[in-house]
Amino acid sequence: MRRGTGRARTRVARLRRLLVGLLALVTAATATACNGTDEEPRIVVTTNILGDITRQVVGDQAEVTVLMKPNADPHSFGLSAVQAAQLERADLVVFNGLGLEENVLRHVDAAREAGVATFEVGRAVDPLTFHSGDDGGPEGESGRPDPHFWTDPDRVRTAAGLIADRVSEHVTGVDDDAIRANAAEYDEQLADLTAFMEKSFDRVPEDRRNLVTNHHVFGYLADRFGFRVIGAVIPSGTTLASPSSSDLRSLTRAMERAGVRTVFADSSRPGRLAEVLSNELGDGVRVVELYSESLTAENEGAATYLRMMRANTTAMTDGLTVGSPKGTHS
Fold first, then answer.
1. 210-215 β-sheet, strand order
2. What pTM was estimated for this model as a whole?
3. Whole-number CA gyration radius for the chain
4. What is the pLDDT of residues 111-122, one digit of tens each?
5. Is the pLDDT at 11 greater than 80, yes or no?
6. Which tens digit of pLDDT belongs to each residue from 28-45?
7. Higher pLDDT, 22 or 216
8. 87 Cβ partners below 8 Å, 6+ apart?
9. Distances from the Cα of 159 to the Cα of 55, 74, 186, 210, 221, angstroms
10. Residue 309: exposed, middle, or buried by beta-carbon count in 10 A (0-12, 13-18, 19+)?
11. Angle of helix 153-170 relative to helix 176-201, nearest 10 degrees?
12. Which of 92, 136, 277, 296 could hold 302 in an S-S bridge, CB 3.0 to 4.6 Å?
């Protein structure tokens, strides 16, 4: 009996050690799952321009999901059910705001109501307001905030710093020192961009510093670098509006008074715009393509904010300093 009792006690002790070991393994596995890729910090960004800026600041410290695809229109793109759900599972939502993402803002509001931290970048960078139509701004939108702040690289520097602040404040599990280092490095690159733009635009004579665009998107650039906005083919801050015959007549008269024969258009619509202006102004109108509201795919010329702004600066400078155009772009 004593021998059997001893063996039983040994088996019980072994069983206890086994259970303790299993419990330790389960606890370790649970901790790993909570801190591993399944629970990696998540930041969701609405537009691809802000997405690139946020990724430069965040680096590898969190997963950054960008909802807007390359070459999309921020005024009209929408979300799938999966993307809408991503907003509500995020640790932080970064969005442009000021009415830019017209079909997405209700989903951002829903995420905020669900307790997700959100950051409206446009409202935090001292936004400009649209002027009246007589001043080259969109009719009917005078006094409304202009959402296109990214055409001023100095405001983007402010935005990047504020994004770093919000990430540190709201996203757990990130290395604050790494976030700050990334933001400082990107700030230097943005400062270099401003210097490049200033040097380039210094080549444009004072009497040629006039901008006509497909819609009102370059007000911040004009304010920062001393250009005059003469008008826009679509007299609105959104691409969802359409020009009327009277709008086009007003624009062509303004262009004739200012001696402007160059129009800057989004790279997705230059041919259509050239045709419209040719009908109104005749031959001799140059349409210069720019990247205005969306980044492109990697091999299409404007895959990052820095590349987009440098390409636009070169195109604008060349478009405003060359001699009188001999033909219409088509």
1. 228-234, 210-215, 262-266, 286-290
2. 0.81
3. 27
4. 999 999 999 999
5. no
6. 444 444 444 457 999 999
7. 216
8. 44, 67, 79, 93, 107, 108, 110, 111, 116
9. 13, 18, 11, 27, 16
10. buried
11. 170
12. 296
Residue type, 102: E
pLDDT confidence tier of residue 275, bands split at 50, 70 and 90: low
